[in-house]
Design brief:
The structure holds 2 protein chains of 2 kinds. Chain A is of the alpha/beta class. Chain A has a single domain, classed as Rossmann fold. Helix content of chain A is about 40%, strand content about 30%. Chain A is built from 9 helices and 12 strands. In chain A, the strands form 3 sheets. A 6-stranded mixed β-sheet of chain A has the order 6-9-10-3-11-12, sandwiched between helices. In chain A, α4 crosses α5 and α5 runs parallel beside α6. The longest helix of chain A has 15 residues. The two termini of chain A are about 25 Å apart. By secondary structure, chain B is α/β, with parallel strands linked by helices. In chain B, the strands form 3 sheets. In chain B, strands 5, 6, 7, 9, 10, 12, 14, 16, 18, 20 and 22 form an 11-stranded mixed β-sheet that branches. A 10-stranded mixed β-sheet of chain B has the order 4-3-8-11-13-15-17-19-21-23, with helices on one face. The N and C termini of chain B lie far apart (about 55 Å). The chains are: A alpha/beta, B alpha/beta. Bound molecules: adenosine-5'-triphosphate and magnesium ion. The site of adenosine-5'-triphosphate has 12 residues of chain A, from α1.
């Protein structure tokens, strides 16, 4: 589904991703871990198409297509979803209007008729239940005044609404209480199917108790320096990243 | 019979003064002495002060020079009475029952009744009729708030004040129907008009007022209007001004509010389009506990110029005021915001805030924004802020990452920017309609034929376009 080869990314002439390789197949869950500031969010944004980053070399193929020429919204409509580490507040735009616009623009892209209000509201009710989101949050402006946990749950809700093929969740588990963590994890578990895939960026092995990953990667200084199975996450939890920093990989 | 005077350029001031003496005054032989005296003082004030110029602090960024060099005519008698205005325009706000008052070229359109008197004592209709029928109300309130001795434009209007709208809401009366005033200009020649409005609310009275400016013929016009609104103790005024004028129109509106104790004012000035617009808005918080909430939104492109000049004068203790003005500017459009807050020495426990936010869509668009605070009391909470910016790129990325196209994302964000002001509109049908107009304005679908859903048969509808691809 996603194949990244020898990716180099810079911002303001500062190289952040330095030759990264990653392959994600349909049905798989990949976890990416790694110390602060090593380029995890940068990688996620680059896949989503954020223009402030410059890809200096390498390729990103998604569903067999080179996505570098595709706009952010085209990628989204092709099924790439980014759950933000820091979801953005958009005062004045209601969640309902935001989601309705997003769902219908994606439908339009795919040549489908827009959902009418009744069908849209029904879809929203269904997904709200799935991710156990408080119903009043959808009446408010996008993320405005949401608590940290509510913002993260709202990312999962949006993911459920848009039903992506490839979801990248950037620290969606950070700052969540135990119950919220379970809700977020359950959301992913319920949405997981043989034809979709997840990249989960996290600092904690805890989330991976709920969502069992097929692969765990360690991103360090712009490169994946170690990959393994779920046991690697436990090892990292115990030993930290020091042993990797010393070049013992 | 129509008396018309042609007014020209550089000598416009002299011509106006001559027209006043030779043509205007003789028609007012029967006027009450106090009115005559006010007129005389006003014309003298105008003679010494003249039109405002850019050397004046409050006019630094707005020039009337081009406007004043055009030729205009003035009409000193009502245009052909009982003209079927319904042929010129059709105006209604959906789902809102209003009392509609129409001014055509500055004159109240008389549909058989000059002044309506309701059973509860409320009076509304022609200013010209009211000044003859209610001299005691005029003597008490007229020209008491508008500074005709120190301001050239106010003096000019006061000298020539002939017609406009008069509204009186007695003590304890809550006007159940919104009053809608529509200002129409329809004239084959360039027209200079000076409507004068007087609105008086007694104690515990309440009034909602929607005031629309519209032009049908696409001729240059110069409007210099003065509105005085008196809010009695514990009264409430909800005031909306909608401006959707031609690119050749010059509109100067001067609104003066006087607020007694515990009165509440909400004012919302929405400028969709106009050539040169200057809104002077001043409120005097004269009684303890009065509150003024002043909102504004201006959307300008091409060579348009929109200037909002605000004065909030805290003359009493425990009053609150808030100013929130927002604008989106494209092309070479220029906007000016001067927000004055004055807190007098004994006005303790004043809470006053001011905020002006702007989005500039082009390098050539400009905004001059400046707070002016004069605070003489010590127990005061006062805040002000001004921002000039572009759309938040983080929010743009967020929206697009959900599959929303770039232009749609921009549109949603601009609309959200404006919604901040629109959401303060208290009358739901008015809010929905303005909301819709803003939406269409931003999408480039609003024309100068749209005004409070006026469906005019203008021969040359102009579509206004804010080009969002430039953000
Ligand atoms: N817009 C930007 N301008 C300048 N530097 C940037 C920008 N975005 C990211 N960086 C830098 O790139 C590096 C990688 O940042 P990134 O956010 O990808 O790290 P991360 O691995 O997600 O960290 P964390 O675990 O703290 O979320 C950091 O040094 C960061 O300061
Ligand atoms: Mg990060």
């Amino acid at each position: 589904m996603l194949k990244i080869s020898n990716l180099h990314v810079s911002i303001n002439n500062k190289e952040i991703i330095k030759g990264l390789n990653l392959e994600v197949k349909a049905g798989e869950v990949h976890a990416i871990m790694g110390p602060n500031g090593t380029g995890k969010s940068t990688l996620a944004s680059v896949i989503a198409g954020r223009e402030i980053y410059e890809i200096t070399s390498g390729t990103i193929f998604y569903k067999g297509k080179d996505i570098q020429t595709m706009s952010i919204e085209e990628r989204a409509s092709e099924g790439i979803f980014l759950g933000f580490q820091y979801p953005v507040e958009i005062p004045g735009v209601s969640m309902t209007n935001f989601m309705k616009t997003a769902v219908n623009e994606q439908r339009k892209y795919r040549g489908q008729d827009p959902l009418n209000s009744t069908d849209f509201l029904a879809l929203m009710e269904e997904k709200k239940k799935l991710v156990e989101i408080q119903s009043n949050l959808t009446n408010r402006s996008v993320n405005e005044g949401f608590s940290g946990g509510e913002k993260k749950k709202n990312e999962i809700f949006q993911m459920a609404m848009l039903d992506p093929a490839l979801a990248i969740l950037d620290e969606t588990d950070s700052g969540l209480d135990i119950d919220a963590l379970r809700v977020v994890a359950n959301g992913v578990v319920k949405l997981r199917r043989p034809d979709n895939a997840f990249i989960i960026i996290t600092h904690y092995q805890r989330l991976l108790d709920y969502i069992v990953p097929d692969f765990v990667h360690v991103l360090f200084e712009g490169r994946i320096v170690k990959s393994g199975r779920k046991e690697l996450a436990m090892e990292l939890e115990e030993r930290g990243y020091e042993w990797l920093k010393n070049g013992n990989f | 019979m129509k008396t018309e005077t042609t007014l020209t350029g550089i000598t416009l001031k002299e011509k106006l003064i001559r027209a006043f003496e030779e043509e205007f005054l003789p028609g007012l032989a029967d006027e009450k002495p106090f009115m005559k005296e006010i007129r005389q003082q006003s014309i003298e004030t105008f003679q010494s002060l003249g039109f405002p110029h850019q050397k004046m602090e409050d006019w630094r960024s707005t020039s009337l020079q081009k406007t004043l060099s055009r030729q205009y005519i003035q009409e000193f008698t009502s245009p052909s009475p009982k003209e079927d205005v319904s042929k010129i325009f059709k105006c209604d706000i959906h789902h809102l029952d209003t009392h509609l008052l129409t001014l055509l070229n500055g004159w109240h359109v008389d549909t058989g009744i000059e002044l309506t008197v309701l059973p509860d004592g409320m009076i509304f209709g022609s200013f010209n009729a009211a000044r003859k029928q209610y001299p005691e109300l005029f003597e008490k309130y007229y020209a008491k708030q508008a500074p005709y001795l120190s301001n050239g434009l106010i003096a000019l209007n006061t000298a020539f004040a002939h017609d406009g709208i008069f509204i009186y809401v007695p003590d304890g009366v809550v006007a159940t129907r919104t009053i809608q005033i529509v200002n129409i200009i329809n004239q084959a020649e360039n027209l200079f008009i000076q409507p004068r409005n007087l609105v008086i609310l007694g104690k515990n009275a309440s009034l909602q007022l929607v005031h629309c400016d519209h032009s049908v013929q696409h001729k240059a016009s110069f409007v210099n209007s003065v509105t005085e609104i008196f809010l009695g103790e514990n009264s409430f005024v909800d005031h909306y001004k909608l401006q959707n004028k031609d690119n050749d129109a010059t509109v100067i509106t001067n609104s003066f509010f006087h607020q007694s104790a515990n009165s509440r004012l909400i004012s919302n000035v929405i400028t969709f389009n106009g050539g040169l617009i200057r809104n002077n808005l001043s409120t005097t918080l004269a009684g303890q506990g009065a509150d003024a909430q002043l909102f504004g939104l201006y959307l300008a492109d091409k060579d348009q110029h929109v200037d909002n000049n605000i004065m909030v004068d805290h003359q009493s203790a425990d009053c609150t005021s808030n100013q929130l003005y927002k604008g989106i500017l494209d092309d070479q459009a220029m906007a000016v915001f001067n927000g004055h807050i004055k807190v007098r020495r004994d006005s303790q426990r004043t809470v006053a805030s001011q905020n002006n936010k702007n989005i500039l869509l082009s390098d050539k668009a400009t905004i001059h924004t400046q707070p002016h605070l004069e605070i003489f009391a010590d127990d005061v909470k006062c805040s002000h802020g001004a921002t000039v910016g572009q759309l938040d790129p983080e929010a743009m990325f967020y929206m697009r990452s959900r599959g929303i196209r770039e232009d749609t994302s921009r549109m949603l964000m601009m609309y959200a920017f404006a919604a901040d002001v629109i959401n303060h509109i208290q009358i739901p049908p008015v809010r929905h309609q303005i909301d819709e107009m803003v939406y269409r304005r931003l999408k480039g679908e609003l024309s100068n034929c749209d005004q409070c859903i006026i469906d005019c048969n203008a021969t040359r509808p102009q579509i206004f376009e804010i080009d969002m691809s430039k953000i």
